[in-house]
Amino acid sequence: MTTSPPPATHRPSSLPPSPSASATPSATSRAAGSPRDLVPGCVGMALVGSSVTVSRSLVDAPLFAAQAVRYVAAALILLAVARAARVPLSWPRGREWLWLAGIAGTGLVLFNVAVVRGVAHAEPAVIAVAVASVPVLLGLVGPLLEGRGPSRRVLWAAPVVVAGAVLVEGTGRTDAAGVGWAALALACEAGFTLLAVPVLRRHGAWGVSVHAVWLGAVMQAALSLCTERPDALTTLTARQWAAVGYLAVLVTAVAFLLWYRTVAAVGSGRAGLLTGIAPLAAAAAGTLTGGAVPGPTVWLGLAVVIVGLVLGLRDGRNRAPAPPASSP
Question: Among 1, 134, 56, which residue's Cα sits nearest to residue 291?
Answer without folding.
Answer: 56
